[in-house]
Every structure is written in C-alpha cells, then in structure tokens.
Amino acid sequence: MLKVGLLGAGRIGRVHAINIAAHARSQLVAVSDVNEDAVQSLASAHGAKASTSEAILSDASIDAVLIATSTDTHSDLIERATAAGKRVLCEKPVDLSLERAQRCLSAASKTGIPVMIGFNRRFDPNFAAIKASLKAGEVGKPELLSITSFDPAPPPVSYVKVSGGLFRDMMIHDFDMANFLMGAAPQKVHAAGTSIVDPEIGKAGDVDTAVVTLTYADGRIAVIKNSRRAVYGYDQRVELLGSEGLLSAGNVLENTVSKSTSKGVVSAKPELFFLERYMRAYAAEWDAFVASVLDGAEVPVTLEDGVAALVLAEAATESARSGKSVLLEV
Amino acid sequence: MLKVGLLGAGRIGRVHAINIAAHARSQLVAVSDVNEDAVQSLASAHGAKASTSEAILSDASIDAVLIATSTDTHSDLIERATAAGKRVLCEKPVDLSLERAQRCLSAASKTGIPVMIGFNRRFDPNFAAIKASLKAGEVGKPELLSITSFDPAPPPVSYVKVSGGLFRDMMIHDFDMANFLMGAAPQKVHAAGTSIVDPEIGKAGDVDTAVVTLTYADGRIAVIKNSRRAVYGYDQRVELLGSEGLLSAGNVLENTVSKSTSKGVVSAKPELFFLERYMRAYAAEWDAFVASVLDGAEVPVTLEDGVAALVLAEAATESARSGKSVLLEV
Amino acid sequence: MLKVGLLGAGRIGRVHAINIAAHARSQLVAVSDVNEDAVQSLASAHGAKASTSEAILSDASIDAVLIATSTDTHSDLIERATAAGKRVLCEKPVDLSLERAQRCLSAASKTGIPVMIGFNRRFDPNFAAIKASLKAGEVGKPELLSITSFDPAPPPVSYVKVSGGLFRDMMIHDFDMANFLMGAAPQKVHAAGTSIVDPEIGKAGDVDTAVVTLTYADGRIAVIKNSRRAVYGYDQRVELLGSEGLLSAGNVLENTVSKSTSKGVVSAKPELFFLERYMRAYAAEWDAFVASVLDGAEVPVTLEDGVAALVLAEAATESARSGKSVLLEV
Amino acid sequence: MLKVGLLGAGRIGRVHAINIAAHARSQLVAVSDVNEDAVQSLASAHGAKASTSEAILSDASIDAVLIATSTDTHSDLIERATAAGKRVLCEKPVDLSLERAQRCLSAASKTGIPVMIGFNRRFDPNFAAIKASLKAGEVGKPELLSITSFDPAPPPVSYVKVSGGLFRDMMIHDFDMANFLMGAAPQKVHAAGTSIVDPEIGKAGDVDTAVVTLTYADGRIAVIKNSRRAVYGYDQRVELLGSEGLLSAGNVLENTVSKSTSKGVVSAKPELFFLERYMRAYAAEWDAFVASVLDGAEVPVTLEDGVAALVLAEAATESARSGKSVLLEV
C-alpha cells in the first residue's frame, strides 16, 4: 500500500485525491494547500490528514507526493521532495522557466529518485491506442503527425498574463504528445500565432490561435494546431500518417445518441473539458505511477520528458515572436 | 450494341432512359407512353423514336424492352414481349395479383425467353457489398436479418387505395431483399401493421407502419420494419447478424459535412428519396441486364424472384388482417 | 449519510459496493453472502463489516439494503427487508415466477416502504438521453420502437437451464426499456425464437435468438431483437421513430481510434460486456436511489415496473412456445 | 444549346466528354488530340467529329472549348481560343510558369472573353457545402482553416521531374481551396517539405510530403498538409474553425457497409482516386460553365483565380527550398 501526500487541493488536486483514494494499492494520507478551507474539506472527504507541505515532506511514513500546486512552486517542491527521498508525481509543466526546470532536473537527478511528470494525455485510452498501434508497426513508418487541440473557451486575460503564454501553458501538452508519438525531438520549430479570438490576449503579449510545424532529422513532419476557443467543446484529436496507413483518434462524445429530423442529423458534442474527457486518463496515470513505485515498472513520463516539452515551448514562443524558424540541437 | 425499346416515359422511365443512352453497349431506339407529350420529349432528348408499345413489340430490330408502365399492365406486356422474342427488364412489382403474376410466369416460361425484374436495391453498392461479404463467409452463418425501410412521406390516400397496400407496394422491395440475402423463402410470416401516421390510410384499408417477422426452416429469423414517414429522408438500412459477426449497411448521406456548434454536431440527412439514393443502383441494374443479354450472364433477378416476393406480400397482408401467422409451403 | 447493507458479494455485488462506497452521501456498512471468502474480501476492501442477511435486516442503524443475491431469493428478501422498514434496491429480475413476484409486490405494498428495481439500463446516459428527448417532444409522437440487445457469448447450458429462459433472463431488460420509453404496456405480444446459436440451448428448452413484436392500444409498435452471441461485443442499441424524427442510441466503443490501411478502415469494437458498458449507468442508478431515500425524490423504477416487465416475459415465453400472439389486459 | 469543342482526349478529357454529352444544354461537336486513336474512339462514342485544335478554334459554329491538353499548352490555347472569341474552360493549372500564366492572363483579358479554370474541387458537394455554410455565417468568423490532401500513391519519378513539383502540381488545388474558402490571399507563406515517401523524389529535386502555413493580414491562419501516399485511398478533407463552430468535410467512402467481428469494426475506404471522388464535382463544374455562358451567370473560377493559386505555389516552392517564410504583396 502506497502512502501518499497530496500537495495542492485545487481543482486538479481534487481529481487526483479521488484516484489515490479509489486505487486498491494507494492511500491518501495527508493533504496540504495554501487555502485552509480547501485542504480541510478535501482531507475530510477522504479520511486524510489536513497538513502542510513541510510536514508531509518530513513525514517518514509517507512514500510519495503528488504535486498539484501552482506552477511556480513545482521546481522547488520537486527538489525538496526528492531530497527527502519521496517518489514524486508532479503536474505539468515542470516550470515556466526552462532554465529553472533544467536546474531542477539536475538537482533531482543527483538524488537518484525518479520523478514522474503528469502529462495525462499519454494515458488517454485513445492516444495510448495510437501509440500501441504505432509500436506494433500497424501503419508502417510514421511520416506526418497532426495534433488538434482546442479549448472550449479562452481563459481570462489576467490568467493569460501569468500563464507563460499559449506555448508553455497549453501547447506544452501537444509538444509532449509529439515527443511521445514521434519518439524523438525535432530539429526545427516554426510557429505562426495570432490573437484572433480575443485581441486583449494579443495586447497582453500572447496568442490564442497557433500552428506549429516541427521537422525531424529523418524527414518526418509534425503539425500542431491550437485554439483557445472551440464553442462546441474540448476538441482533442491526433492523426498520424504512416507508410502503411493512417491512425486517427477522435473526440470522446457526451453520448452516442443521434437525432434525425427534417433539419439534419444532430449528435452529441465532445466532452466539454479536460476533467470529463481525461477522467479515465487521470486514473490510468495514477495507476502507472503506483506500478512504477511498487512494482519497479519504468517511469512512463520522466522529468527529462517534462524539460523536453519546455524546450519546444520556448522555441515556439521565440519563433512566433521573430517570424523565423528556430533550430534545435538534437 | 443492344437496341432497346422503352415502354413508359414517366418518372422511372426517364431514369432508365438516361442509363440506356449512357451505356456503352446499349442504345435507346424507341419510347412509348400513353402520355403523348411525355413520349415526345423523352424520345427527342435521347435521339430515339416516339412510338407505341405495339410498334415496339413488333419491330424486329429491337432486341429488348424495358417495361416501366403502370403495374396493372406489367403481366400483359411481359407475356406479349416474351411471345415476340424480346428480352425483358420489367419494373417491380410483377403484378398486384399473385394469381395473375403466376399465370404470367407460366406463359413467359413457355417462351423460354428470360425476364428480369427490376428490384433495383439488389444493385445498390451497399446492399451488394453485404451480399458479397455474406457469400465470402466473412461473418459466418447468417442468423438474424433486419431490414429498415422508411419512406420520407406517405403517398396521397388516392394512391394508397389503388396501390395494393403497403405490403405489395412498398415492402415488396424488402421481401425481395430478404429472399436475396437469405437465399431461401421463409416458412412463416407474421405481420403487425398500423395506420398511426395517417388514420385516413387506415380508413382506406391499408397500414402505414408495419413490422414483419419471417422465420425460416433452419431456424433463421428476419425482421422487416416499414414506415411511410421518416421526416429526415429515405431511410434504407440492412443489418445481418451471423455466427462470426455483424454486417451493417447504413444510409447514403447528402454530403459528408458536419457542423459543430454550441448546440451539437449536425451532419447531413440521408438522400431524400429513391432516385437520389438508388441512382447508382439503377445504372448497375441496367449494366447487369445488358450483360445478361449480350454476354449470356445469368439473369440476376428472375420473374420467379418477382413472384416469390409477391407470395410474401400476400401472406403479410393476410397476417396483418387476421392477426395470425401465415404458414407457407417451402 | 445513508447507511447501507449489501446482500450478495458476487460480480454485480462488487460493482455496487464500489458505487456505494464512492458516493458522497452513502456508506457501505455491512456485506453478506453465502460465500464466506467473497464477503470477507469485499467487506475489508471497503472498510465494511462481514455480516449475514439476518443481521443486516435486523440492524436498526442500517437504512437501506441492496439485494444482489441469486434471483430465487429476491422476493423473499424484498418482503423481509420492507417488513423490517429498510429501503430496498433489488437487482433485476424480481423473480422468475410472475405469481411469486406479484405476491411479493402485494406484501411489500402493504408495508408502504418503496422498493426500487435495478433496471440499470434506464440510467445509461445514452438511453436516458433518448427518454429526455422524447419527453421534450423533440421527435414528435413516438410510433415505432426498435431495441437491439445482443450478448457477446451464450452462457453455459447449465446456466440456461435454471435461468428462466431468454425472455425472463435476458430480454427482461428490453421489456423494461420498452415500458420505460413507451410509457405504457402493450396489448399484444408476438415472439419468434430459435436456438440457432447453440442447439444444446434448444434441447434445454430455451431459445438463443428471438424477435418480439409488441403492439399497443394506440397503434404504436415495438420490436425487440435478442441474440446470445455477437462475437464483436455487447451490442446495445435503441431506435425510436416518431412523427417528427428518429432517435438513435448507438454502442459505446472501446476507444475512438480508427486505423485506415489498404484493407479498410478499422475502428474499435463495442465495450465487451455489461460491466464496462454500463459502468456509468450503475453509478447513476445508485445516485438516483440515494436521492429517492434522502431527498424524497420519486423512486425511478418501482417494484410494479419489475412485475410489469415479468408480465411481458411470461407472455413472450408463451408466444414463442405456441407460435401464437398473446393478448394482455391493459 | 452550347456547341463545344474538346481539346484533349486523355483520361480527364474523357470525363469531360461524358458530362458535355449528358448535359441537357450542351453538345459535344468536335474532339482533338495528338493521339489519333484516342480522338477517333472518343469522338465516335459521343457522335462528335474527330478534328484538330486548329479546325476547332476556327470553326465559327463552335461556341466554347474545353482545354484538357497537357499543361504546357494551356496558356497558348487559352490565348488562341479567346482571340477566336470562344468561351473557355481550361483544366488546372494554368501553367507551370507563373510569368507565362500572367502573360496569358494579360492577353486573354484584352479580348474581354471570360475564361474559367477547372478547379473541380470547388464543385465537390462537400466543399461547396462548407463554403455555403461559411457564407451563411453558420460558424461565425473563420479563424483557422485546415486542408488535408493525400494522394493514394506517388507518381513515377519521371512524371515528378516534369510536374513542376508538388506545390505546383498537387498542392495547387489546395491553394485554390484556401483562396476559395478564405476569400483573400495570404500575406505570408511558410512551407516544410520532405521526400520521406520516396527518396528518389528528393533526388529529382521535389518533395512528397509537405506542410504549408498561410497567414493572413487579419490574423487568420490556414494550414495545408499534402502527402503523395495514403495507402488507404484518396484522402480529401477540409476543416474550418470559426468563432461560433467548426465545419468539417470528410471523405467520400466506397460504401456505407461496416463489418463487426471479433477483430474490430471494418468500414469502407475513401474512394480510391479523383475520378471516383470528384465525379459529381466534374458534372457540377460543367453545369456551372454552361450557366456562365448561356445564362450570363458569374464565372465561378476565373483565370485570375488560376494565377492566384500559382502565386502561392511559387512562394511555397521558394519557402521549402530556403527554409524561410515568403512574404507576399497583398
């Protein structure tokens, strides 16, 4: 039984709490958060202790921590947790600063304690099936990857200002998905971005719609499309053209009902947002973390993976700014 | 080059005229109809002769006739055409009277001239693919067949009164489809019918909605659903459950566009009616007729098939009336 | 907080245990089963007491019981539980004997304690959406209902012999679905059944493939298709044709991935069986039960509903045997 | 009745011949080709005269010519035909040389005779429905366009060498589609190309897989993906994200049949290639041309449109070569 401390009792912390508590081999022991009310209510709902991050990190009976605090605390908490010998699952992104994330990686590596980063989409049954099919060679050699990732609605401009920008905050998931499916880092990054959804986002120095092209040393190409607004729901799709076929993962819909009338055939929208769409992914992610700790299974998403996604986000941000492609060392 | 006389220049006659004229190995030579205007305009559009059925049947240069006149003339024209040595493609149904159709079959058989009946749906690429898959054993042994066949809107009650009733006029297609896919006649017919769409149809002695269950000597079952009204278009589907899988043929849609908005995902309706849906089927049907005449290929839908479908229509009419199943000699 | 005793720790009991434990307003207090090992492991997994049905029914601190024991004990346990003042959620079917179920209903009614029957499919988000759309009048007046319900594989013949037969054991769900969606009992039942999947099932006096036609006093028709074998998974679909459109609920697939190769486009199969397909339905069912007890919400599936489905199962069994339709008093 | 001369009796010429002959308001009068056999057989099949381009262009009884000869003759024939006062429908592309096409435009403009360019995809019912929906404002303001266009198999390298390259030969269709749907020319073109399908194509100086990003003055973005190889068929899709929704046009499949077995659910592939996929588009294109001549309807695809697509092809070719974006004057 894995004894777990949860750092962070916000929206995503509550999702993790349910999965930790429901898992047959893990137990939620303690919860911390800067918000006292949040921590009390979440702890009591799962029979855990309301605590502090300090107390959790120094509690020898706790095996692992899940870091679901605000992004600016991730690097610091990863360093402290690994120094304390705790296994770590940390929410994405590692950090908004690539340099800080790299220092964190360096520090954590020295402890020898593996850190897992919460790129939940790798555990989505649909994207995981794409990866499995690829690995099995079912469509031959991959050649052209397309990732579509649209949020239902843009965040407030106040959030945009502190978010690190679309490439670090939103497309970071897609950069990791590209790394995951392509199994290599690209050589070159080209980004086109615009603030056509909300000009205020542009005034805040960010984009809300972007297309990024990644080219790889062996000639493969990937293209990522992001928009902050898809009024019909959370649009999350992946397509991969290979030498022997195409793999395509569609959206998860709210239900399977269609209604045919004189006006057309109406079916359900995609699940509205990430909690609904990735509910199964979060549970599978937690299961993989438990297996990596208790069974010695390979850590499926490493801190290095977290840094690698940030490298692409940094390059895309630069490319969108300069209008020129950015070359990466590979 | 097959020289063809077309008897009947109404809606369906015009469809056949185009296919006869467009086919590389057939030529539309003459057209007849009781309506003088119709025959003139159709003949001139295709460079054919406006003629009469008498003249066509006695013209030695004409190899084949396509009978697209009103149903009550079919048996008579089949008998006269085969007696004149013409190959025949006759629109369905052979006759509204089973007894008359049987006499026609008897007379035509004596001439030794094969007659093809225009059950166009056998030539629909979707249903034909189901048949081919079945024959190839791709879903094992067939066990349970379902046919859904809904018209977009009920005909006028005046038509209903002379139509022979839903089972002879509309479900006749589905009886033939069952015979085609099951490759045998059923042992027993049970029909449930209602005039829920339009009570006036009920007053005229007919039904507008019906479910027929066919049971076969070897234990297979087929179920046919008909409605005179599907406001979203012409709904034409087939499903066949076999020991190793399910074959399913869906509707042909007006286009492949979907529109996702905050209200749902809207896609196109099925093609509105039989001319649109079965356009490709009519062309393939004509091609098969030409091949049967010019190449000696097997006649794909025989006059016997036309009578066999009528036998089921008669039994279903009786079952819906009496509320009891009707046993057939097989 | 609703304190709940679970009677039955088998496959379905374990599903309910998870939902009871996970629900914010219910607590699993005690579990009983004839199998000692099953009861011990299930109880400990959820921090509940291993107990006996006697002890649970006489424990005043327990508010409600969930009956998930073998069918032959249902009527007895419902009577004892309601006599003891416990609210009840009982798995389907109420009983294999219609007469026994009616006596149970009579006894339970006298206690004034409402009993809910576990027709889980009413809580499936897809079928529930059909019901909601119907209620909202989105397709006008219902006219023709079709229910397709195929199991992935037939049960052992030993099970078939004690199951009460396909109509009571399997189609009972579909009878309830028809009652649920049509909002009335039919006037007439016609059943065609065969043992084409496994002749041994026929020798045991049962069928494995059946088509049932229900006709209603107002002219509506429903048709239910069952097969014990669909090698591609659990096939659970509903279609309802109304005066203004068609509602259609499709299968829930294992994932949304398609693979296009030179051989065709392959997509995922339906979820294999009822635990996967109806996972969300079982959770929603439990939530509705909790609301009916704690909030006084209407009991969504009553003991009367359980008896009504049995009436249809009885009639269909009789019709399949006699080959004649069975009239019901409505 | 429009009297038409067809210049070119190759594969695409034969498609046009059928549409000209089948159209109620046009007549195929004469056909020319460098291949004597081709011209004889095509002419006789449609009752037209085997002729030469010279004779056709100087025949005063001919109203219009359809140019379906090899690309290097297009500009010259357009100039001669318009000088002779003939209305023209010319296959795409206008020319491989942008400079030559611009001279052709200049010469043709002076004659005042409108020229239509055969960008057939604008007439595909699916893409046309996207355009109509956009125009009707059904998804609000367009923001992000995606075009997927994959051929089933790469052409021979010998063809590649004289083709003008992927951007002029293949993506030219997609550039026109972008111009058609966006209603404006982009400001900037970025192309990434690779010869991952066939290295011999790379050695011949061309690419076989490419992603082009177009950015517009008002902040809109379009992305076009091309591959010379999709083993599952001709993959032709368009998606447009707008402020109020998403429009998506999928592939046209060979049939609507699906087969569910223990291995998955298999459905039909996209129509194999452009003749099958765009059969309806070619007929609609011809109908639009006839209407533009006989009814004075607006020419739906002008010579200017043909040149505008070439401008993008030129820019993309340059961008793929240099690795830098190309700015356009708009």
TrEMBL record, chains A, B, C, D:
- Please state the span of the N-terminal signal peptide per the UniProt entry: none
Where the record annotates domain GFO/IDH/MocA-like oxidoreductase, the positions are 127-247
Q: Does the keyword Flavoprotein apply?
A: no
Which residues lie in coiled coils?
none
Q: Give the Gfo/Idh/MocA-like oxidoreductase N-terminal domain ranges.
A: 2-119
Superkingdom, natural source: Bacteria
Molecular-function GO term, any one: nucleotide binding
Keyword vocabulary terms for this entry: Oxidoreductase
State the Gene3D superfamilies in the record.
Dihydrodipicolinate Reductase, domain 2, NAD(P)-binding Rossmann-like Domain
* Any Pfam family matching the protein: GFO_IDH_MocA
The record's family statement is: Belongs to the Gfo/Idh/MocA family.
Q: Which NCBIfam families match?
A: myo_inos_iolG (TIGR04380)
Please identify the protein, giving its name as recorded: Myo-inositol 2-dehydrogenase
Taxon lineage: Bacteria, Pseudomonadati, Pseudomonadota, Alphaproteobacteria, Hyphomicrobiales
